[in-house]
Design brief:
Length: about 500
């Protein structure tokens, strides 16, 4: 209890509170610009933390990342351009609500359930860190292979069209993920002599292109379709939240749980948590046919999950020094820089600093509601800007974000190419979301499969040797069989209706 009292004193210091406020504004600005991710916000803060004591340095990172993840929902909802990858899973759903005149409700759900999800992840971080981190440590390449397969299966479930078109999109993403050096042999593949392609196709510029640039191209090709956006002023975003909360509180709890579990797995992160939560929401919904048409149910699940994953990702980072995602990989470096070597001993040697970090999470998520509302009010003026002015500005921000990721024109080229491909896909009824998921998980799928085959000397039965891998393998295959049987039953019913 003495450590907790010291932590309160550390976090309530005026300088620390001002640091939290400043980093919150910074995180919102970065997250709201398509292409400037929460990871980038963290990386940009690292040079500043050199001159800070441990508590304000870590509090700044915690606050900026939490705000950036939420702020990515704003352009996602208003413009169909996810500010961060964590918002990509439900971008189409949120934008569909905007087109229906429900942007107010979508943004209110985002800010409130983001804050609740962040607080849930923080509570788990505080009380269940050792247990969940121990579970994550039990994962080997065999378990990660099945986890990647399960994640890719979600790519089919989240598709708003037929599973066949989703599979085409997914395979396209997997194919693109093989460009570059082979993860095992180091042999360059599909580079065609282009040096930049040896590093592979960068995910962030590709995501910006598939979502944002394709939307810009659509606006240029058909300006009248963009004119149908409701030019309304966002008023009370809390209107209707009571009904949503009463109806979908189990979805919020499920999203929080999924985000916590996925976030605690090393390398997973908030973006994968959002994909899985959205897919689960559609799978178990009583109204799955409404998904993709502007249905708030999936947004509740996914926005709860990606914010819950933030706190959970710190579990393996703090307890075992294993990064839960790219953000905590940077955090581990900051911990070492401040003399707080991550691992079990950090709870013994510096307990007051760890508790102060926990409290920083709580303060950041509480601040998310008032600051998020201010950001929403300001950003809604975007809807009043003429499209002929707004689209070039958006394209400029996309180019800046893509260039910042790769530090070269190569990122801009990927973004533009992906934008053209994304526009062609959607014009032909092929969803782009599964392609993004295939690009994200493709490398993980290949690397874990090849590593497992090398360890088992080509014995496929080894994928079912370990209890965890057996459970995940059986679950994944069961999902495949269930999806196949469901598709077959729908086909039989449709044929019976035709013959009748």
């Amino acid at each position: 209890m003495d450590a907790v009292g010291q932590a309160f004193g550390l976090i309530l210091d005026t300088n620390v509170l001002l640091t939290i406020l400043g980093s919150a504004v910074f995180g919102i600005l970065v997250g709201a610009i398509p292409g400037l991710t929460a990871t980038m916000a963290t990386a940009l803060l690292v040079p500043v933390t050199f001159f800070m004591p441990p508590v304000p340095a870590l509090a700044a990172i915690v606050t900026a990342t939490a705000m950036a993840i939420f702020a990515g929902d704003i352009p996602s909802t208003l413009l169909r351009m996810p500010g961060t990858p964590a918002s990509a899973a439900y971008t189409d759903e949120a934008f569909a609500m905007t087109r229906k005149g429900q942007a107010e409700l979508a943004l209110g759900v985002n800010v409130v359930f983001s804050a609740v999800g962040g607080l849930f992840g923080t509570v788990v971080l505080m009380f269940a860190a050792p247990v969940l981190a121990d579970l994550a440590l039990g994962f080997s390449s065999f378990e990660y292979f099945w986890l990647a397969c399960l994640g890719l299966t979600c790519g089919v479930f989240i598709a708003s069209l037929t599973p066949l078109t989703a599979m085409v999109s997914l395979m396209l993403g997997l194919m693109v993920s093989t460009v570059g050096f082979d993860t095992i042999s180091g042999f360059p593949r599909f580079t065609f002599g282009v040096t930049d392609l040896m590093s592979g196709v960068s995910f962030i510029p590709a995501m910006i292109g598939l979502f944002a640039v394709s939307e810009v191209l659509r606006g240029m090709a058909d300006p009248e379709s963009q004119a149908s956006l409701p030019q309304q002023r966002i008023g009370n975003v809390f209107r209707g939240l009571g009904t949503v909360t009463r109806r979908y509180w189990p979805n919020a709890l499920r999203g929080n749980a999924i985000g916590t579990i996925v976030g605690a797995l090393p390398g997973a992160g908030a973006d994968i948590a959002a994909w899985v939560a959205y897919a689960m929401s559609k799978k178990f919904s009583k109204e799955p046919e409404k998904f993709g048409t502007g249905h708030v149910e999936g947004i509740v699940d996914a926005t709860s999950a990606n914010n819950a994953a933030l706190g959970a990702a710190w579990i393996p980072a703090l307890v075992f020094g294993i990064p839960g995602d790219s953000i905590t990989a940077i955090v581990i470096g900051v911990l070492y820089m401040k003399g707080m070597n991550p691992g079990p001993t950090v709870f013994i040697q510096n307990p007051q600093l760890i508790y102060a970090v926990f409290m920083a999470f709580i303060v950041a998520n509480i601040l998310m509601v008032p600051l998020g509302l201010a950001a929403i009010r300001g950003s809604t003026y975007i809807l009043r800007v003429p499209r002929r002015v707004l689209l070039p500005i958006i394209l400029l921000f996309c180019m800046v974000g893509s260039f910042a990721i790769t530090s070269s024109v190569y990122g801009i080229v990927i973004m533009l190419a992906a934008g053209v491909v994304g526009w062609i896909m959607e014009e032909n009824g092929i969803p782009v979301a599964p392609a993004i998921l295939g690009l994200v998980l493709g490398e993980m799928l290949e690397q874990t499969f090849m590593t497992s085959m090398i360890k088992s000397e080509g014995n496929l039965a080894a994928f079912f040797d370990r209890p965890l891998s057996t459970a995940l393998g059986v679950l994944t295959i069961a999902v495949w069989l269930f999806a196949g049987v469901s598709a077959l039953m729908r086909l039989i019913r449709s044929r019976r209706e035709v013959t009748a």
